[in-house]
Predict the structure.
Amino acid sequence: MSASEVKQALIDAARELLRRGLVEGTSGNLSARLSRDRVVLTPSSYPYERMTANDLVVTDLDGNPLEGERPPTSEKALHLACLRAHSEIGAVIHSHALYSSMFAVARQPIPCVIEEFDVYVGGEVPVADYRMTGSDELGEEVARHVGDRAAVLMANHGLLSVGRDIDEAMKVASLVERTARIVWGARALGELAPLPDSTRERFAPIYMALRRSGGQGEE
């Protein structure tokens, strides 16, 4: 994808987050690789409905501004830490999805009880230790959890999902939120029934194989 196509995909995903109720107002933030060492991020506190490509911010992987007039998201460190640590990740979405955030506040992982969760997320969604919003420490803590998972909960905060591109990161966010809701409801009915070990052994390797099959952008 060209830089302009990546930027438009980022804006489309931001509006889709809002439409699906995965964020409210100007909460949440998104990023995507433009090349090996250039990243586009959503700006801080700007309405998704009015956002255009000119409102987006481009930085290098150290956060140095390259393009854009607006300040980048206050969670810039969170995105850049994940992208620096894992070259196969092409996009990051931080959302405040309701059911996922309930698990984050309770500091409980979202269990892998559905087959597609293994395939597209890589297993249960863990809870990263609490770190202050916007801090480098939060970025480092979250980045270590997405080495073999497509999503992680941030304690008392929300959900972070990653993908080879922004569409994949969006699909992961939606799948995790749907599963969180299913688990919440299933627990009201009784105990969760885990997937058989044979199923986990069959599906567990698929996620990393799919993740490694992607590439990263070049200049």
About this structure: The chain is about 40% helix and 15% strand. The radius of gyration is 17 Å. Helices lie at 3-19, 76-85, 98-106, 115-121, 136-143, 166-189, 197-212.
